Amino acid sequence: MNYFPLMMNIDYKKVVIVGGGNVARQKVQALLPTKAMITVVSPEVVDSLQHYIAEGKVTWKQKQFEPVDLDDAVLIFAVTNETEVNDAVEEAAQHWQLLNRADAKGRMDFMNPAVVRRDELVLTVSTSGASPALTRKIKHDLAAQYDETYVAYIAFLKAARQQILEKFQGDEKKAALDQLLDPKILQWVKQNEYEKCDAFLRQLIKGE
Questions:
Q1: Domains of the chain: total
Q2: Residue 132, pLDDT above cutoff 70
Q3: Residues 76/107/109/9 CA torsion (nearest 10 deg)
C-alpha cells in the first residue's frame, strides 16, 4: 500500500486509544507534543500510563469498549491484544474517522512514522511496515545527525526569515533566504557563537 505522507493539526481534537498496554503508552507518548484531547478506553492500564492520567494529560475510561466511546473522535487507535475487540472498534468507526489497528488485521487508514523532534523541526521515517528494525535504525541515525543544536538553529532561521520577508521582495528576497543556509551559521550555533549569527544577519539585511 502506498501511504500518503501528511502532517496533521490535531490540537483540541479528540483522539481515542482503545487498549491500555505498552502499545497504548507508545501512542500516548507520540501524541503528547500536540494538544490533542487523548482518551484511553480500557479496563486496565500499565503503570506508565497511570502517570499521564494522574497529570491530567490523558482521560481514562476504565471500562470495556463500546461504540459510543468513539463519538467525535478524529483519530482512533485499536491497540488491544484481542482481535475481537479490535474488530469491534473497526466496525464502530465511521468512514470519516481515521483508524489505526496495531494488529494490522483489518482497516488501516494511517500508520505512525518514527519521529525525531527538534522543536519545530520534525523528521519522520517509515518503511510502511516492511522493516520496523530499519525504521528504528534510520531514526537513530537522524537523531544523531540532527541533534539538539537544531532547536536553536531553527529558531534563528525562523526569526531571520521574518526579517528578510519584511525587508526584501522578489529575487532579492530569494537570494537573502538562500544565504541563510550558509553552513557557517550552523557551525556558529554549534559553537554557541550567536553574536556571529546576529552580525551575519545584520549585514544581510543591509544588503552587504
A1: 2
A2: yes
A3: 0
